[in-house]
Design goal:
single chain, 400 residues, alpha/beta, 4-stranded mixed sheet, 16 helices, globular
């Protein structure tokens, strides 16, 4: 998997696209394995930020035309960006895997399955909780930051409501267990009055089917993907998916969604979310997002590539720009690392979380003995609900 030498390799979009943009031999040595390959890009709508696609598309075209590669783009909300004017030097035509008749039938079924609703009034925590609980469960709430999700989950739990929480505040091992719990509860028809509060980690790849969903305004594609976690099998008509905004000192703002959130708001005002197909909505959203970011991001990348400034291209084409530190939560893994027994990479990842440097510094976390790149968690950790946010949430309330 590391060198892409297997007949079938499963990797992340981050690894794939950052490899294409890299100038480091250690990453580029795997590229020669791509010649003649078929590459299936799943959840292509969220594979990379919109502003990276113009340059990435040129790389994919070269792989297709000169390396004999074949590409399939798959998504429930796929933006047909290759047809956008000004996006590419020339518009492309890509064959569809489904017929127009089947696509229209699917779009009609979507319009019956869910309805997208918009709450334009920003909500504080109390208003948000009342609004969530006023709708029929089971309910899914997706917020834009780990802190916001943890705070809302904490508030619901403190008020005596049944709630589960799913975000990167929990280790992958604990997230897997909670996913199993969610699936079990969703299969119990009588167990409907409860809420899952999560971050975007539940938007794709999860076979969840809630009665109602609430999505903090993020992007058009995210809202439509949230619709895929509601009334998933069409058992009922017109299940609700709410787009909403929050305004509260404890519910933090994610600046990465500024442009896409503004575009979503305009599309909603124009009734496009309500009447257009998912493909039409996300394609138009991508066009507007690109036009907003083109001069500051997209054009700069293409200019650096044209001038063969590959070190700068490598810096600009990072899919994930977050600078985080690995913090080991599992005490058995910490002990094995410190006594020299050693653990597998899988054990390390499953028992760890990732924190931003400012939080590592604020919590005064210690390094794992003998491992300068790893920190160990010494505070309160709640594997059943809040994860490492169990240590941070109480102080948030004190600060306000």
């Amino acid at each position: 998997a590391t060198l892409w030498t297997s007949p079938i390799t499963v990797t992340t979009a981050v690894q794939f696209f950052e490899t294409l943009g890299s100038n480091h031999p250690s990453r580029l040595r795997k590229l020669h394995e791509l010649a003649g390959s078929a590459v299936f890009v799943d959840e292509a709508h969220a594979a990379i930020p919109s502003w990276l696609w113009p340059q990435a598309w040129l790389w994919l075209k070269e792989l297709s035309e000169k390396w004999r590669c074949h590409f399939v783009f798959a998504s429930g909300s796929l933006a047909r960006f290759w047809e956008l004017e000004k996006f590419l030097e020339r518009r492309e035509r890509i064959p569809d895997l489904v017929t127009p008749r089947l696509r229209e039938a699917a779009s009609e079924a979507e319009r019956r399955r869910i309805v997208y609703l918009h709450n334009s009034q920003p909500l504080d925590r109390n208003e948000l909780l009342r609004f969530i609980l006023s709708r029929q469960g089971p309910r899914l709430v997706i917020l834009n930051t780990v802190q916001s999700a943890a705070v809302v989950a904490h508030d619901l739990n403190a008020a005596g409501h049944s709630v589960l929480h799913l975000s990167t505040a929990l280790t992958p091992s604990d997230r897997e267990r909670i996913v199993t719990m969610v699936q079990g509860r969703l299969q119990t028809e009588a167990d409907g009055d409860w809420t899952l509060v999560a971050t975007s980690c539940v938007e794709a790849g999860m076979d969840f089917s809630f009665r109602t969903a609430f999505r903090e305004s993020c992007s058009t594609a995210s809202l439509i993907q949230t619709g895929g976690r509601v009334n998933r099998h069409g058992e009922m008509d017109a299940a609700e998916v709410w787009d909403l905004r929050v305004l509260d000192p404890l519910l933090t703002h994610n600046p990465a969604f500024e442009t896409s959130g503004n575009v979503l708001e305009r599309l909603t005002a124009e009734k496009r979310i309500e009447h257009a197909s998912a493909t039409e909505c996300v394609t138009e959203a991508m066009r507007r997002e690109l036009m907003s970011d083109y001069t500051t991001k997209t054009a700069v990348i293409k200019e650096r590539e044209r001038k063969l400034d590959y070190p700068e291209v490598d810096k600009l084409c990072r899919v994930i720009e977050a600078d985080t530190r690995i913090v080991v939560v599992d005490k058995e893994v910490i002990a094995a690392l410190e006594d020299g027994t050693g653990v597998s990479p899988q054990q390390l990842v499953r028992g760890s979380v990732q924190l931003y440097p400012h939080r590592v510094e604020r919590l005064a976390l210690e390094l794992v003995r003998g491992h300068e790149e790893l920190y160990k968690w010494t505070g309160c950790y709640d594997p059943e609900l809040l994860g490492y946010m169990a240590e941070l949430v109480p102080s948030l309330y004190q600060d306000t």
